[in-house]
Each structure stands twice: as C-alpha cells, then as structure tokens.
Amino acid sequence: MVTAGGIFLGIAFLATVLTQWLMQWPLPTKIDAGYVRMDGQINGPGDYEVFKPIPLADGRTAGIPEDILKKNMLGKDTFSLAGVIQGKLQSARAKKNLARVNKEWEGLKKYETTLPVYVNILGGQDIPVADAVKAGVPESVAKKLAGKAKTFKGADMVDVLREQPKWAQPLYLATALDQDISIGDAERAGIPLAIAQHLAGTGKAFKGSALNDAIKAHPTWIAIWKARVKRYGIYDVVDKSSINKLANQYAITLNQAIAEAKHPDKNADLGNVMIVNENGRKISVNFNTNKNAAGETRLQTGDYVLVPDLNAKYRMWWLVTMSLLVCGVGISNSMLMAVTERFKEIGTMKCLGALDSFVVTLFMLESGMLGICASVLGWLLGFISIILVAGFTKGWDMVGTINPLSVLITFFICVGTGMILTIFATIAPALRAANMPAAMALRSEI
Amino acid sequence: MADAAKREYVVRTKDLVKEFSMGGQTLRALKGIQLDIYRGEYISIMGPSGSGKSTLFNMVGGLDKPTTGTVFINDVDMAQLDAQELAYLRCRTIGYIFQSFNLIPVMTALENVTLPTVFAGMPQDEGIERGIELLKMVGLGDRLDHKPTELSGGQQQRVACARALANNPAIILADEPTGNLDLKTGKEIIDLLRRLNKEQGVTIISATHDLKMLDISDRIVWIRDGDIERIEERADVQLKVGEMEGEEH
Known about the structure:
The structure holds 2 protein chains of 2 kinds.
Chain A: H1 2-22, E1 35-40, E2 47-49, E3 54-55, H2 56-61, H3 66-71, E4 78-79, H4 81-108, H5 115-123, E5 126-128, H6 129-134, H7 139-146, E6 151-153, H8 154-162, H9 170-176, E7 180-182, H10 183-188, H11 193-200, E8 205-207, H12 208-232, H13 240-250, H14 254-260, E9 273-277, E10 282-285, H15 291-295, E11 303-307, H16 310-341, H17 343-351, H18 356-394, H19 396-400, H20 404-434
Parallel strand pairs in A: 1-11
Antiparallel strand pairs in A: 1-2, 3-4, 5-6, 7-8, 9-10, 9-11
Chain B: H1 2-5, E1 9-22, E2 25-38, E3 42-46, H2 53-60, E4 68-73, E5 76-77, H3 83-92, E6 94-97, H4 109-119, H5 124-137, H6 153-164, E7 171-175, H7 183-200, E8 203-207, H8 211-216, E9 219-224, E10 227-233
Parallel strand pairs in B: 3-8, 3-9, 6-7, 7-8
Antiparallel strand pairs in B: 1-2, 1-4, 4-5, 9-10
Helix pairs in contact in B: 4-5, 4-6, 5-6, 6-7
C-alpha cells in the first residue's frame, strides 16, 4: 500500500511537472516569410509583420526599384519589407506553377477536341460523322450508323461501344459509357498524375465528364499563372542580400511585437516567454529578471512567440501540492496499518530487548526503501505516459527534442520528493510503533 | 537440606498493587501480592479470567510496572528502571515463550534464535554458533534455514524455546506454551521445558491451564480476585489426570 501511494505520487508529480517542461517548446505551424505569430496570453488576428516600416530612402539605397517600393507602401514615406519578400516568393511560385500547368497541357491537349465527342455520345446527342472520325471512330462504323445522314445518334454509338470494339480507346470508352476511370488508367492514357489524383479526390477514380471539364478549364489556368508571372516578375530584380541587410536592420523587438498585438492581461506569465522558430531557434525570455533585455530581443521572420498563462502555472502547483498531500496521507495511513497489524511482532522484539529507537529505525528504513522503489516506478510510469501523450498530440519529432539533462533532473526531483514525503509521512506511525508496550506480544488481538 | 533455607530468590514482590483506570473508575487488578520465586524452580500461575493472573504474570516478567509496591527481578527494583534499562533486563535476564510462538516470519529459524544475541551486542559469529548449539539442543539441528511457515507448530515452539535461551537468561517466562499445540506435541514441549529446567537450572514461570504442565511444576500459585488464594507444592497436589495419550508411533 505504501507502494501504491508512492506510485500515485510519482505519476501525479511527474505528470504535472513534465507536462510543463515538455509543452514549453511548441513547434510553430507554418508561418509566412516576413511575419511572426503571437500566441498564448497575446491574442491578435493572425500574424504580425516582423519588420518595422522602413523609410523609402533606405529601400532605394538597398537597390529596390521604385515601382516595387510604391506597390508596398505603408504610410507616407515608408514601405513594408514583408510585402517585398512575399512578392519575391509569389514570383517564384508563379513561375513554378506556370511550368507545371504548361507541362500538364502537353498531356491533356490531345484530348481537347476528341473527348467532348464522347461526352456528347454519352449525352445522347447527334454526332457529326466528321467529328467522330477525328475522335478515333473508324469511318466505316460512323457511316454505317449515320446511314444517309451526316450525323448519327449518340445512343446508337453507345450500343456499339458496349461491345468494346478494338478501336475504342479505354478513356473514350469509359467516358461514353459513363464508367469510372481509375487513376492508373488515366496515367496510362497520358493524363498527368496530379490532375488524375485531383479529379479522383478522396476516391480512386473519376468520370470522363469531369476530365472534360478540367481540360476545358485548363487554358484558363495557364492564362492565370501567366498573368501572375508577369505581375510578380518585377520582384525578380530585387536580390536577397539587400533584403537581408534591411531585415537585420529593421527587425522588430519583442516589446514592439507585444505592443502591436493586443496587450497581455495580468494573468500573463511574462517570466516564461518563449520564442520558437521552424529553423530550430529556441529562446526563453524572462521579463521579471531583466525587463529591458527581454523587451529588446530581436525577432526573426518565422518566430512563434508564446506567452503562457500564470493561471496554468498556479494550477500546476496546486495540483502538485494536492497530490503530495493525498499521497502523504495515503502513505501515513498504510504505514499505520502495517504497524497496527504487526503489534505482536513489535511486542516480541521489545521482549527480546529491542529499544524504542530500534523499532522506529526499523519502520523508517522499511518505508524508506519502499518509498524509493515506488518513486522510481512512479517516475517511470509518469515519464512513459508523458512521452506517449506528447508524441500523439504534438508529434514524435517533438519527442526527439527532449533534453536528457532535464529528464535526469526531473528524475532526481521526483525521487527526492518521494523520499522526503515518505520519511515525513512515516514519522507518526513509527513513533506509534515505538510506544507499543512489550506486553502486546501476549495479546491475541489489538 | 540446609541449602533449602538459603535458596536464592530470583523474583520477589512486596505489596504489589496494580490499578487500571477504565473510564472514570479504577480497577484494582492486584491487591497487594507477596510472591517470592526461587532460582531454578518451575512455578505455574493459575487462575480464572479476570483474576489478575495475566497482570501478575506481566509484573514478574518485566512486561509492566506496578502502581505501588515493588517487584525485584534478580535483586533489581523494576520500578526504578528506565526504558533502556528495562530493554536490557528483558534482553539478558528474561527469555519469553508465547502461546502463538511469535517467531519473525521473514527470518529463518537460526536467524530467529540469534536475534536476541544481536540485541545483546554479541558478535555475529558467536551469535550464530550459539544459535546452532541451541537449535541442536532442542532437536532442530537440521532445520536451521527453515522459515517459520515451513515448520510445524511444535517445531516453531521449540525454536521459540531455543530463542528464549539465547542470552542465558535467569528466568524463562512462558505464557500458555502448549495452548496452540495438540496433546502429543504439547507433551514434547513440556518434556523439553522440564529438561531445560533441570539441566540448565533456569527458572521457569508459566501461566497455563494445561493440567499436564501443573504435573511438572515445583509450585503452583492460585490467584483469584487480585489476591493469592493459595500456593501449592507439587507433592500436595492431588491430580487425577485422565490418560488420553495420542498413539505413539
């Protein structure tokens, strides 16, 4: 029962402390270049620009063209560097996408005129023989269906296609018969994989009519990306080094970021502010020890600033205290039971010549050893549960970043606290044992 | 027979009174007892429940202190002893045998027997030697490493007897030693105690109901209502004990 108390202690203590420890370093979700994100006690809409408004003059000196400066103006004579950075990113992105849609068109264009024919066949329309022939239908077959007319009925062609004639390509066949086209079949027919996957959505196949719509829409996309390339192409002139120079010069400080976001309320734990970045940057900032230094910390693009809640801290300490109390009572109670159950043994010892101090020492040692075992076991169980929780909620790579030194420290804190608690909780029962008269050995019941 | 008059007393009581307060009332368990116990004798204390038998037993056994009056154990006034001295007395001067054996369950027979020597400060090797010797004497030389759960009741009581002798005490205090044993095993213990009394010369004070034990006692103290009713010498006791032996194999 002491073991149970100790385990309980270990888990409760460790769960709260380690949770605090591990959850201190949240990985930021993707933050746009040129921006920082504030979280926790600091609320604000979305992300904040990491640069102060930069005077136009400095922009010109850095070699940024006038039209770009004008496009990103922030006030009378300042401009937004984040806008310029975003512009460059958009340019690169637009170029990449244009190349992509052009390549896709290579695969799609041969179906531009032919696929609609089969969609019309499906729709039961009258199909001109000439169009059908262009779409791969043998002339003889088309003429036979049309008879003397220049068109034939789509429904008739459907009947023909149902026989799966050799000349019918799988893609056309599936379209006319309204069957599913699998991603594999589409790929084999030359449809780009990305488009096939997009058409299939969460499933594994799509309909020919959907493909037809996509093909019809594709040229529009090409036009869109072309326009974007043109629009953002102006940013290609700006080179990275000038941006970086300006960035270093004009990056905001933590104070400025906090000021721009809504102010933290009095529950903010400004002693434990954390700055984390996707590039691996991790800084802990304490406003309580050195307000100035803390406030002057320079932020970088992609920084994620977390201002925790004091209430969370208080809650943690409250939980720890309560669990220590409960465990203390539990340990004391079970040791007392042990003493009471062993009245004969204690009485006998005293008859054999044991001093009161010997009896006390006996029980203290016993519970001390149980305390160590229970604390270690409790620490282990708590540690494993925390790892599992952190892994499943925050990701397993997060778990890999745990500092072994802090793990060791929590081990010693946990076992140490367990030991001290066990010792204090056992004092009263041990004294009770020591005061037991030797005549107890003769009694048959307590 | 001239020595008889000069026989030493190992326990003497004078106007021994013990009172317990229960609620508001005081209960006089012992009302002024005079009892002298000779060294080397085998004395039994008998009496109905509530007679003060257990109280008197506790007094002469160093397990409790009197309210008024004196108890001398080996010429030492019990009431003057502090906790440490009392422990010393129990360790060296008195050996205890209990009705429920009271062996430490997690220790082997040998460890149980050597435990008093540890409290007496004897070096470990000496203690082990003495333990082996004692266990052999009670006939358990081959069961040194058995735990109490691996021993029968009779064997456990024999270990307890060996333990009681560990520090060569002047007195052995036996509280219903045969109470938890069957007839045959009880008889073995009685024989052992008689042997110890005769060979080792150790005084045995027992509280018992077992009539077979009365048979080997030198004297019997009958107590009733906190007073000694009579003290009988063995020769005076007329006992008709029905023979009801178990089968002898």
